[in-house]
Amino acid sequence: MTSFKFVLLWSDALFFLLIAAVIAGGVWSRRQPHLRANWRKVGQNRVAMGSAAVLAVFFAIAFIDSLHYRPQLPNVDQGEVRYSTEVLSALDALLMPMRTQTEKTYSAPLATHLFAKETLDDAGRDYPPLRYPGTHVFGTDKVGQDVLYLTLKSIRTALLIGTLTTLIMLPAAIGLGLLAGYVGGWVDDVIQYLYTTLNSIPGVLLIAASVLMMQVVIDTHPEWFATSAERADARLLALCAILGITSWTGLCRLLRGETLKLRELEYVQAARALGVSSARILWRHILPNVMHIVLIAMVMDFSGLVLAEAVLSYVGIGVDPNTISFGTMINTARMELAREPMVWWSLAAAFIFMFVLVLAANLFADALRDAFDPRASR
Amino acid sequence: MSLLSVRDLSVSIGTLCPVDGVSFEIERGETLALLGESGCGKSMTALALMRLLPPGGSIVQGAIHFADEDLCCLTEAQMRHVRGGKLGMIFQEPATSLNPVMTVGEQIAEALRFHAGNETRVIELLAAVGIPDPERRAREYPFQMSGGMKQRAMIAMALAGAPELLIADEPTTALDVTIQAQVLDVLDGLRRARGMAILLITHDLGVVARMADQIGLMYAGQLVEMAPRAAFFAAPGHPYARRLFEALPEMAMTNEGQRRLATIPGSVPPLGTVFTGCRFADRCSEVLPVCHRELPPWREHGPAHRVRCHLEVRAEQSVRKVGAGETASVDVSAPPQALLTVRELKVHFPIRRGVLQRAVGYVRAVDGVDLALPAGRTLALVGESGCGKTTVGKAILGLQAPTAGDIHWQAEKLQGLAPERMQMVFQDPFGSLNPRMRICEIVAEGRPGADVARILEQVSLSASMADRYPHEFSGGQRQRIAIARALAVEPQVLICDEPTSALDVSVQAQILNLLAELQQTLGLSYLFITHNIGVVNHLAHEVAVMYLGRIVERGTVDEVLRAPRHPYTQALLAAVPRIDGQRMDVKVAGDPPSPSNPPAGCHFHPRCPRAEACCREAYPPAVSVSTTQTVNCFFAN
Asked: How far is B433 from chain A, CA to nearest CA, in Å?
């Protein structure tokens, strides 16, 4: 039996933390009778439960893909136990056949022969047979890797970029937006100045500059990272942070406007008259009444960020080239689509998975918003 | 043949049926008032006449004949010529019915072009609705005009097609009483001059008494009483009509000493209720077993007076005196020591302009107000919108920092909030409760751990409501919840900012009774901010009348309401439409001036019929007319 060394990447830790928080939130809200009634409403919604199931599958795949380890190398000199520098995940172990059964180059979905004719030793030019015919559901890519495997591996990257970025962005957007709207005065001026300045710099330029700076830092400190996976992971996290820092302004401006409106409402005035503190008013009166905006913005941003990752990878400032992501897949698909005959399956696979993920997230968020809005009850 | 004849009209929106079998007729030159509380289907009837029902709405049965045409059979293209042509309409909210980026003249010209083929009569129409200096006003944009002006411009636009019937949907509800009186005069004058019929939709019995020839009372989508004005006000036939009269605070004014208003239990049934029998049966105090089973037939109650009720009512029985109310001990002795004293209160808002946001002027919302509120008494602060009365309330409470002046609680000077002493009840019961908090959370907000059940019972709500959300409650219940929230911290003073103006008459009576009871049991003091003179008369001990940031007259209720000395108070009282149809002659012209640029001298002199040279030069000092009444007028005596 081969032993292995467990590896906890930073992004894994954050991802586990996120899942733990979601579970804890679920358990806590089950204890609250009025919240439980709302969850029951979600449970009775067929579309919501369908999309929740889809989301659960996606998160499960990402979770399994986040359990990283370094396999033990075969013991050559009876000495110390040595581990591979290649970091694998539990998903890689599960999909071992898919990962290792590579072809020479492109093959169409479920094909038995390669996509392009080659000069064969015995029979002139023909389509060479595959090593593993009929096993590649989504075909193979240029270097013969199974596209379905690539797509499944991309899910973790997409979810990380979607959720971690949102998590970095949300506190800034909500905190500053509510503060600017509620407190007003010079606080409002400073916050407005900040986001107007950030907004006035072209987004891609700002991100490119930050990513390049971060890349220089990573390249000048190779001693920080034991494996290439750790370096790729640091780059992914840094990308999340940079995307988060540059994308909070839109939501912040929306929330500031909404808070300006809510601040003048009579229930906020009444709370002030009751001597309720500002922090408590923000927490109990303003925040719950802007939550629908936050939820909609979160889901929209989630889809937007997954797409932004693709765009950035295209410019060459996205995730590490070794990291498998929808962005890198779409990026390579650009060349494949220009071929004659066209290689369409990597783009199709990435498109189908992204579409299902984003659609499920949207439908589920819709159902959540309806269930938790007391006015929408029938 | 009558101008408009509606027979058996029913409207449905999806599965709801807001108008059910309504029939009425309007003769040329006559005013028919459709009267009813909110949600009774009045506006929907008017929209059905115009064929302007909201999406999903349709006329399911009935016939509408207007000037020998069947409106239900016209095509949409033909209907466009009827709308705004022979059939004009004006709406409640003048601020949103005019296009803000077109001049008023252009908008009227547009209507003229379509319906009359020429645009030359703009100035003539503006003059006809009593807009002074029409040449200049035609070139102005809506934002440059006051609410009353805008409503007149709307009327002028409706007149462009020379309508034979004008549908006026709550035309004065958004306006102040003095402006309301002016607009009603314009409407009535136009009706006489042009022989135009008016279908007036309103919830205000006073407006009906002032304007209507015929009255149709609606309840839950049906007409329940049709009568000529005199007969309706002399002897209302339907129990609902009688209860409405008894619920009016103005009625209590004629019954001296009655401090308790008759109320109608419950509220108007929501749309979508399935009825068998009489729709009012659940709230009726004279309900018979048959009422729940059978829809009552129309019964002749007098000449041209029909009532839809099973109960045979004789005319002399019908005006029942307000019953079973306890007589409150309005002590006329010297008022007790003041609990709350306000001295020289000023709240000025800076007007900032330019890059550096320098203050170029001040809106003097409150400009030197003195008040004294004794324990257990009610002081009413009366005035029209924009006079600064709400700002006074907020400044006293500490929600608004005063620019100058002191607020004293007995001998102690107050600074900032004093939540355990003073609380506020707001105007809009829908805006004053957080939709995402449960009732128990709302009530316990000021004092976590408060006994929510007991407090809810105090305001006559059931403790079982504590776990529900505000949207499940009607306007009246929400206002009770708002009062409960204020009571939870056990304050001694409640500042009530128009707490009943968003409510229907029958619900208003319930809230006023509740406030009176609470005052008796808890010894609360009220600062009651309102524009409704009837409510003032019913609830208040003392009255202060405010005009443009200053108090112009103060005194006891009897002094100020029965023997007003200030010309503004007199005009204000005269402008209130009275349900006995009597009218006083004191008229006030024009609009209130802007508080950013008040007139020199007495603020009221540009509108005052008695103004003389001295009024233009100096602000009149307070003159004591009696020990309790003071007036800021040179001609008080």
From this structure: 5
Write the ipTM. 0.80
> Are A284 and B434 within 8 A, CB to CB?
yes
Provide the pLDDT confidence category of residue B33 given band limits of 50, 70 and 90.
Answer: very high
Instruction: Determine contact, residues B79/B51, Cβ cutoff 8 Å.
Output: yes
Tokens of B226: 């049709």
User: Higher model confidence: residue B322 or residue A45?
Assistant: A45
* pLDDT band at residue B177 using 50, 70 and 90 as cut-offs: confident
Nearest CA in chain B to A290: B436
CB atoms within 10 A of CB A10: 12
Q: Does A276 touch chain B (CB under 8 A)?
A: yes
The runs of H, that is alpha helices, within B58-194 are 76-82, 94-97, 104-115, 122-128, 134-138, 147-159, 177-194
Q: What is the CA radius of gyration of chain B?
A: 26
Nearest CA among B568, B541, B547 for reference residue B628: B541
Percent of chain B with pLDDT over 70: 94
CA pair distance B87, B67, nearest whole angstrom: 10
Contact A68/A370 with Cβ under 8 angstroms?
no
CA A280 to chain centre: 33
Residue A79 to residue B381: CA distance in whole angstroms: 95
Block residue for tokens 């939130």: A25
- Whether chain A has a CB inside 8 Å of the CB on B437: the answer is yes
E strand or H helix at B347: strand B338-353
pLDDT tens readout for residues A154-200: 999 988 888 888 888 899 999 999 999 999 889 999 999 999 999 89
Half-sphere exposure of A88 (CA within 13 A, CB side): 17
Cβ contact A99:A38 at 8 Å:
no
In contact, B128 and B189? CB cutoff 8 Å: no
Q: Is residue B389 within 8 Å of B463, Cβ to Cβ? A: no
Q: In what order do the strands lie in the sheet with B87-90?
A: B87-90, B165-169, B197-202, B31-35, B214-219, B222-228, B305-308, B298-302
The helix/strand count (H/E) of chain A reads as 14, 5
Over residues A301-314, the mean pLDDT reads: 79
Extract the tokens encoding B87: 């059939």
Instruction: Report residue B345's pLDDT band, with 50, 70 and 90 as the boundaries.
Output: very high
**Cα gap B478→B472, rounded to integer Å:** 9
Q: Is B478 on the interface with A (CB under 8 A)?
A: no
Contact yes or no for B179/B148 (Cβ under 8 A): yes
Instruction: Round to whole Å and give the CA distance between A37 and B264.
Output: 35
A341 upstream amide cis, omega within 30 of 0: yes
What does the alpha-carbon distance between residue B347 and residue A265 come to, in Å, rounded to a whole number?
20
User: Are B432 and A267 in contact (CB < 8 Å)?
Assistant: yes
Please tell me which of the candidates A270, A272, A285 has its beta carbon nearest to residue B485: A270
DSSP B482-493: HHHHHHTT--SE
**Partner A contacted by B344 (CB < 8 A):** no
Q: Name all contacts of B17-20 with Cβ < 8 Å and 24+ positions apart.
A: B17/B60, B17/B221, B17/B271, B18/B44, B18/B221, B18/B271, B19/B44, B19/B45, B19/B48, B19/B221, B20/B221, B20/B222
Cβ pair B376, B336 in contact under 8 A: yes
Structure tokens belonging to residue B551: 């108090």
Measured in angstroms, the CA of A185 and the nearest CA of chain B are apart by 12
Radius of gyration over alpha carbons of chain A, in Å?
Answer: 25
Whether A352 has its CB under 8 Å from any CB of chain B: the answer is: no
Tens of pLDDT, residues B136-150:
889 989 888 888 888
What does the DSSP 8-state code read for residue B267? Answer: -
Residues in chain B: 637
